[in-house]
Amino acid sequence: MTTEPRPIALPVTAVTCLEDRAHVERTADLDLTAGVQRLRLGPVSALAVDRTLHAELASDRPAAVLGARIVRTWTPRDPVPSAGDDSALRLRAHALEGERRTAEQEHDRLRARLDLLGRLAADLLREIREGVGSGESEGERWARELDRVDAERDAYAERLRAAEVRLTDLEAEYGATLRALDEAGQEPPELVAHVELTVDAERAGPARLRLGHLTPCALWRPAYRAVLDGGSLTLETEAVVWQRTGEDWSDVRLTLSTARSALATEPPRLVEDRLVLRDRSAAERRTVDVEVREELIGDLGPAPVLGLPGVDDGGEARVLNAPVPVSVPGDGRAHRVPLSVFTTDAGDEYACSPELSPLVTRVVRFDNRSGHALLAGPVDLVRGGGFVGRGTLDFTAPGAPAELAYGSRDDIRVVRYAEEAHDTTGLAQRSVTTHTVRLHLSRFSAPGEDGERVVALRERIPVSEVSAVEVRLREESCSPAPSSVDGEGIVRWDVSLPPGGRRTVTLVYEVSAAAKVVGI
Questions:
Q1: The pLDDT of residue 299
Q2: 89 neighbors 182 (Cβ within 8 angstroms)
């Protein structure tokens, strides 16, 4: 078996970036000789996962891969940098490290000297105290010794303060040099990996090798840029990619996937679920226990989490492709990769939900015309040629409607007042609670501003799930009458406000419950 001593270059040509790792594909053109031979390819990332290594050959002649493995070599760095091979920053960092070590030793020596002088002063004071107690009188000698000790303590304390200042300056300069060294140049790798490939070829000739493996320290997240221009909106979809695999990805075909290869695919265990039928007790037949709860209207996607969010793909693995080859350095920083862009008509409205917030927000609605699903992620909002803020985009299927909030309006204010009135009516002694909500809208317009502005106000009323509790909207008492009421209990008004105008909206609804209802 022949062995090729020199390594053959094995560059990265395609990368599939997953949620928390990446699948790297490499290609190389080989010139095989007849028989069994061992090839050394690389270098490759030392973080490559060995058990995911897969290699295959494409050749006109019969050839097969007998084995492939990753061999790692440890190259210890020289303790002392050389002037010919290392940069000026690394030489300066080495010099500062020596100066800092010397300054620390000087600081420790001065500290020990001060401690010794302190013990000497304590012994001298004890000698004076004992001598005075025994009737001895050596005032001149005692004064001379105390003056000498105090002078030495002052001198060494001053030198200690100077040494501490010097040490602080050296540590600050050493830290700045290390940060500059980390940003300006890469240290030579200490752990280098190569691929050893054993190939059996019947005849000599060229062959093309494809090799793939998984590697950690790589991830991606979606990001967007929305530009609002009049009645149209341009949405740019980008992928933010981080990778610190130990090598750069240069001009690679980049694929972004939401597949989670690390998740277990084991089906859930089936457990026994017993349903027991029993008669209600007398107390349960006399009362109806009702609970008031608030529910979020369901939508696609998982619940939000703290920290760096995962990729919300709507429960189905999605694949996005970069339109052109891209380069992603292995510096661990965020790099934005353009994916798609589209322009569509957008409708907007000024909306406010006073129960949640008194702010009037400009909401822009549009349809997803990108041709692929829009994953949940942050959006940079641009309007009028300038950056106005950052929002979030929820998961949106292809062709589905989406909405973005373009900030609040400072010239419109909404004040909300709510009150309740309790009463008992009828022979059945039904309790009736009347809720009255008043919304006061004010528009503060600049001089010369004209035109009305329509504000969509939304309030909610309870929705009863039991017949013993009834909710009735008193439309005759509402002023003005609501524009719509949906099945979720959301009441909407479209209120027009002229410049400097004021309006009041009143909502009245009743919640009546039978006498046997408890809990509300």
A1: 46
A2: no
Handedness of CA 135, 139, 142, 143 (dihedral sign): positive
Compute the distance between CA of residue 54 and CA of residue 382 in angstroms, rounded to an integer: 46
**For 132, how many CA atoms within 13 A lie in the half-sphere containing its CB?**
7
Residue 509 DSSP code? E
* Structure tokens belonging to residue 27: 């290609």
pLDDT tens per residue, range 299-330: 443 444 444 556 777 778 889 999 999 999 99
**Distance separating alpha carbons of residues 341 and 338, to the nearest angstrom:** 8
Q: What is the three-class DSSP state of 185? A: coil
79-90 burial string, b = 16+ CB within 10 Å, else e?
A: eebeeeebeebb
C-alpha span between 213 and 26 (Å, rounded): 9
CATH topology of domain 88-184: Helix Hairpins (1.10.287)
User: What is this structure's pTM?
Assistant: 0.68
Helix (H, G, I), strand (E, B) or coil at 346: coil
d(CA 210, CA 10): 9
Answer yes or no: are the C-beta atoms of 336 and 342 closer than 8 Å.
no
Do residues 466 and 455 touch, judged by C-beta distance below 8 A? no
DSSP reduced 3-state for 482: coil
Neighbours of 464 (CB within 10 A): 15
Residues whose CB falls within 8 Å of the CB of residue 11, separated by 6 or more in sequence, listed in order: 26, 27, 28, 250
For the chain, give every domain's residue range. 2-75+189-215, 88-184, 219-262+272-409, 412-518
Alpha-carbon gap, residue 163 to 419, rounded angstroms: 71
Residue ranges, the chain, pLDDT below 50? 298-307
CA within 13 Å, CB half, 4 = 21
Cα Rg for the chain, rounded, in angstroms?
A: 38
Of 514, 520, 511, the C-alpha closest to 286 is 514
Residues 126 and 140: their CA atoms lie apart, in Å, by: 16
HEC profile for 419-443?
Answer: EEEEEEECCCCEEEEEEEEEEEEEE
445-462 tens-digit pLDDT: 888 788 888 999 999 999
